[in-house]
Amino acid sequence: MKKTFIVLFIILFNQVFSEDNYIGYWQTPDKKVIIEIKKINKEYKGYVRWLKDLTYPKGDYMEGKEQIDRKNPNFNLRARKIINLQVIGGLKKEKNKLIGGWIYDSWNGRKYYGSAKILNKNTLNLKGSIDRWGIIGYSMKVKRAKF
Predict the structure, then answer these.
(1) Is 104 exposed, middle or buried (0-12, 13-18, 19+ CB in 10 A)?
(2) Which residues form the domain of 62?
(3) What whole-number distance in Å separates Cα of residue 104 and Cα of residue 113?
(4) Sequence-distant (≥ 6) Cβ neighbours of residue 10 within 8 angstroms
(5) Would you call 41 exposed, middle or buried from its count of C-beta atoms within 10 A (0-12, 13-18, 19+)?
(6) Would residue 78 count as lying in a domain?
(7) Are 137 and 113 in contact (CB under 8 A)?
(8) What is the DSSP letter of 54?
């Protein structure tokens, strides 16, 4: 019991006093998805951790079934569940932003060149681009999720 308490304290202490503002849970502007960003071996990765609608809506040909990666160009990956799906990878910190990675959009099955930049402690700008220089793409401001 005492060891469990100490481990939990260390985890919470590290999260509260971590200087890496990229790490954490981020909610999309439409409030339909929460992505967890982790740092693993100097690389930032993001995983879908929550969906407002876990199942497909009424009128969809897969109505009522759990959402899957059905538009993935790789037929063998189309049965993967969206929950816990990796949607960000390969990002590395350079000065005050993350670059050099990718962002996957499971809604259309496309992978984009990715980058991210902290705007403030509660706002992260995610950008997916079709070109590696980030000229042609889409940005979205995600907010730190509050539980």
Answers:
(1) buried
(2) 20-144
(3) 9
(4) none
(5) exposed
(6) yes
(7) yes
(8) S
